[in-house]
Design brief:
The protein is mostly beta strands and about 100 residues long. The protein is built from no helices and 9 strands.
């Protein structure tokens, strides 16, 4: 793990948004998957791709359009979206936004 043990940490303090870009920080990595914190500026995104892992996206702040298998899904603060393994998906930030991506084998 890249985080200190036995300490309460505020997610906002673990990543610095990049104006006009995307910032990411791997919080934990194991053979069964990983957990990554992302900060997107408005209009930024990840192009369509697929992963061999199931993934959960927890929107921490803002609003995203997640396109999963060609279907756009809007997700806002506090919402969780399941992205199945091998299904093509893309991420677009509608406004400055943060999300926690949990990839599970």
């Amino acid at each position: 793990m890249s985080l200190p043990a036995s300490e309460a940490l505020r997610l906002e303090s673990l990543i610095v948004p990049t104006p006009g870009g995307i910032a990411s920080r791997i919080l934990g990595k194991a053979p069964g998957g990983n957990i990554t914190l992302f900060a997107f500026d408005a209009g930024q995104g990840l192009t369509e791709h697929s992963s061999p892992y199931d993934a959960l996206v927890l929107v921490l702040e803002g609003r995203f359009v997640l396109t999963i298998g060609g279907t756009p899904i809007t997700a806002s603060t506090g919402e969780l979206v399941n992205m199945p393994a091998t299904v093509p998906h893309a991420v677009d930030a509608v406004e400055p936004s943060r999300m926690l991506l949990m990839m599970l084998k």
